[in-house]
Every structure is written in structure tokens, then in C-alpha cells.
Design brief:
Layout lengths: L11 H9 L5 H19 L2 E4 L1 H16 L11 E5 L26 H8 L3 E6 L28 H8 L5 E6 L5 H7 L2 E4 L19 E6 L2 H11 L29 E4 L9 H16 L3 E4 L6 H4 L5 H21 L5 H10 L4 H24 L4 E5 L19 H6 L3 E8 L5 E7 L5 H15 L11
Parallel strand pairs: 2-3, 2-4, 7-8, 7-9
Antiparallel strand pairs: 1-3, 4-6, 5-6, 5-10, 9-11, 10-11
Helix pairs in contact: 2-3, 5-6, 7-14, 8-14, 10-11, 10-12
Length: about 450
């Protein structure tokens, strides 16, 4: 077991044995996390609200149960941060917007219900780009460089993790909102297969592409969280009615026979440092026996990166429908950027939306055929082709991440190192839905070699 100096420096898989052995108390862990929040929140700005009271109650329950020799949940006493799209009874859910200021939904999202039943304690709700419609997450700053954006829309969760304010967090992903901030802040995340994690009680943006999922500093922690979050939910009409995959508990040692595709169209625009580190990350898989395979892009790849197009013509009308009632009553409370995007969605005709859905089905089938024909286990590309933007960010982040939002395939981001600017770089790996557990294993293999989770960007006095 690791030596405990500051518990907030430890990852979830390091913390759990210490908690169960009572070498570390849940109260001590929470106090360490709250101390990190007190020390760095003013500079980082990761939270919409900090909620020490429910986190303290969960920690005290966990410590009392362990002291009495009673069984406890797998996350008993672990502090968790939730992206402020996740509905929580008694704690406002604002989506970082004045439109929902002080909004108490009166219900809990299934995602939070499952974490709470596992014993987790809610330590706070994290900042997102307003209604998750963008990649800035203002006013949150990147702990690796406080002059830069943490990415978005789950930027608050990613920044809280990088700053060691919490060991685990959640986010959502419509076009890359789990993966983009994870890469920008040097943490790990997975956009699960569409429907794998319940969206019940998570405020929607584009329902046919929205996905909730886990974030953590270490991919093994992401894997552990998936075991708790994944699974059918009758409250969610889009929930997958399928067994929960056997997510890995260790990095695979032998990857002989594993084939990782490299589609150069998804690497376009990558900065030299980003490309170099992602190539090094793939080299780690090769050293374990994996083989790299060139993949020709399916027709329409260039269009997917654009706006509008298949992605934009899906997002625009769906988001406008989600916001119709609020726009009718509170349009003046929206930020200019999000309001402009919602208005732009009204320009998409029903015919264009229908064509976009046809293109999505074709694109998804083309990628499935490519995976099957080349016997691919994953396709790799840089998560963010460029370093995080200097604040104030100008324009959206360019990322190939939306390609997998269109297909609904699972896609992860794992850190592969730090560039010459001292900023983290993330590698994306995507796979077919039925390959999701093995995909997490590939991410874990890279992560356990790189071990960026051992580096604290805010270390020092």
C-alpha cells in the first residue's frame, strides 16, 4: 500500500484499500479534499457550489460502519464531484446558467443515485460551459496553466480532478465534452457506448448524442466507476438493455493480436508536440504486442469536422427543442454565445435534419464495416489536436471527437505526456460498443505506463 502523506494525491484504486483497512478514514480523505478546495478554488474556479455537509455525512456513515465491522458500499465515504447538469434533490442544478439559477429539481439522476448507493458523498457541483453548449467552461481555469481554458463542457470536473480537489467526478459528452477537457487537464475519461450509462435526470442538450460518464485521474479509476454506473435503467428510454461489460481491474500485459487503426484524417491539424506524444503513446501499445493498421476514412470524414454538417444538423434542432420552453420565458437570461447557437439551430430545416440522420446511419455502418474488415480493436487519434487555448478562448476547440458522438461508439481519452509548454496531451481510442471493456483495457495499458496521474500540476506551497 502507498504511504499516505496527503490523501488527496492518491487515486481511487489506491484509496479504497486504505479506507477498508482503516489505515485512512473517510473523514481524513474528505478533509484533505476540502483543504485542496480551500487552497486552490479561488484560482481554479472548478465549482458552482461546494457541498461539504452531505460529503461529511457520507464520510461519517462510512467510518462508523467500518469501525463496527459492517459491510459498506464500494465507494463508502469517497468524495465525488458532479457536473452541474446532473439533477440532485436538495442541491441546485443550474447548468452554469442564469436561466436555472437556484433550481432545485426535486429528484436525483440515476447516475447520482447509483453513486450514492455505493456510499459516495457529494462534495460539490462543477462548472460547465453554459448548458454544455460549448468548450470553454468559463470561469474555470486549467490547473496546468491558469492562463488557459480547461476545455469543456465538463471543464469544471476535469479541473477539480487535476487540482486534486476530488478523486473522481462525472461529466457528460455530446460532441467531446468528457474527452476534450480530460485531455486538456491531463486526466482520463470515457464516453461510454450510447445508452450504457443512464441519462435519466441529466439535463439534455442533444438527446440522440448525449452521454453521461466517469472522469478520474487514472484510467483504472474510470474502469471501477463504470462498473457502478453502467447498466440498464427503465427510467431512461434510451438505456441499453444489455449486461454490464467486465471492465478491467488491471492493465493487460500481452496485446498480441490487438490491432489499432490509425486514420490520418483524424490526425489533421495536430501540433507537432501533440502528434509526437500520441505516437509515443501508440508505441507503448506496440511494445505490449499491438499492431498499428492504416485506416482509410469513410466518406464524409471531412464534413464531420465541420459546422454545420451531419453533427451540426443533428445538434441544432435537438438543442432548440430542448430549450424551447425556457427560451419562451427566459431568453434574456441566456449568455450571448449559447443563445446564438440555439438560434442557429432554428435554421436547420426538417429535411436537413432527416438527411443528417441518414448520414449518421451510413457513417456508423461504414465505420463498423471498417472495424470488421480490418479486424480492428480500436482507432486512435489525438483527442485535442492543439494545446488548450489561452483565455479568453476565441472560437470553439477543434477536435475529431464528434466523429464518435455521431456513431454512438465508445471513445476514451488517456494522457500520454506533457508537451514542451508543460501542458498535458491526450490520446483518444475508439471502438465498437461490444469492444468497450477491451477498449478500457487499452487505455489502462497506456495510462499505467505514462502515469501522469502521479504529477500534481499545483504542487508546492
Amino acid at each position: 500500500m502507498p504511504t499516505v502523506t496527503d490523501p488527496s494525491d492518491l487515486t481511487l484504486v489506491e484509496l479504497l484499500p486504505l479506507l477498508d483497512a482503516r489505515t485512512l478514514s473517510a473523514r481524513e480523505l474528505l478533509d484533505a479534499c476540502l483543504a485542496r478546495i480551500d487552497r486552490h478554488e479561488a484560482a481554479v474556479g472548478a465549482f458552482v457550489v461546494v457541498t461539504p455537509e452531505p460529503a461529511l455525512a457520507a464520510a461519517e456513515r462510512a467510518d462508523a460502519a467500518r469501525a463496527a465491522g459492517q459491510p459498506v458500499g464500494p465507494l463508502a465515504g469517497v468524495p465525488v464531484a458532479l457536473k452541474d447538469l446532473v439533477l440532485t434533490r436538495g442541491v441546485p442544478t443550474t447548468a452554469s446558467s442564469r436561466v436555472l439559477a437556484g433550481h432545485d429539481p426535486g429528484i436525483d439522476a440515476t447516475l447520482w443515485t447509483r453513486l450514492a448507493r455505493a456510499g459516495a458523498g457529494l462534495v460539490g457541483k462543477t462548472v460547465l460551459h453554459e448548458f454544455a453548449y460549448g468548450t470553454g467552461s468559463v470561469p474555470t481555469r486549467n490547473p496546468w496553466d491558469l492562463t488557459r481554458t480547461p476545455g469543456g463542457s465538463s471543464g469544471g470536473s476535469a479541473a477539480a480532478l487535476a487540482a486534486r480537489m476530488v478523486p473522481v467526478a462525472t461529466g457528460t459528452d455530446t460532441g467531446g465534452s468528457l474527452r476534450i477537457p480530460a485531455a486538456a487537464c491531463g486526466v482520463s475519461s470515457l464516453r461510454p457506448a450510447q445508452g450504457r450509462v443512464s441519462s435519466y435526470g441529466v439535463l439534455a442538450l442533444s438527446p440522440s448524442m448525449d452521454t453521461a460518464g466517469p472522469m478520474a485521474r487514472r484510467m483504472l479509476d474510470v474502469s471501477l466507476l463504470l462498473r457502478l454506473l453502467a447498466g440498464h435503467d427503465p427510467l431512461d428510454p434510451g438505456s441499453l438493455d444489455a449486461p454490464v461489460p467486465d471492465y478491467p481491474t488491471a492493465a493487460p500485459v500481452d496485446l498480441a493480436g490487438v490491432r489499432v487503426g490509425v486514420c490520418r484524417a483524424l490526425w489533421d491539424g495536430a501540433a507537432p508536440d501533440v502528434e509526437r506524444l500520441c505516437v509515443q503513446g501508440l508505441g507503448l501499445l506496440e511494445r505490449r504486442g499491438a499492431v498499428l493498421v492504416d485506416v482509410a476514412p469513410p466518406p464524409g470524414t471531412d464534413e464531420v469536422m465541420g459546422w454545420p454538417g451531419t453533427y451540426g444538423d443533428t445538434m441544432g434542432p435537438e438543442s432548440l427543442l430542448v430549450h424551447a420552453a425556457w427560451l419562451a420565458e427566459r431568453e434574456h437570461l441566456y449568455g450571448e454565445e449559447v443563445l446564438g447557437r440555439l438560434r442557429h439551430g432554428g435554421e436547420t430545416t426538417p429535411a436537413r435534419y432527416a438527411a443528417a440522420q441518414q448520414d449518421r446511419r451510413r457513417w456508423t455502418q461504414d465505420w463498423r464495416l471498417a472495424f470488421e474488415a480490418l479486424r480492428l480493436d480500436a482507432v486512435a487519434h489525438p483527442t485535442n489536436p492543439q494545446p488548450p487555448q489561452v483565455l479568453p478562448a476565441r472560437g470553439p476547440s477543434i477536435s475529431p471527437s464528434k466523429a464518435w458522438s455521431i456513431t454512438g461508439f465508445p471513445c476514451l481519452s488517456v494522457p500520454v505526456g506533457v508537451d514542451d509548454l508543460g501542458l498535458p496531451v491526450g490520446l483518444s481510442l475508439a471502438a465498437l460498443p461490444e469492444q468497450e471493456a477491451a477498449l478500457v483495457g487499452l487505455g489502462t495499458a497506456v495510462d499505467e505506463d505514462v502515469q501522469l496521474w502521479r504529477r500534481n500540476p499545483l504542487a508546492g506551497p
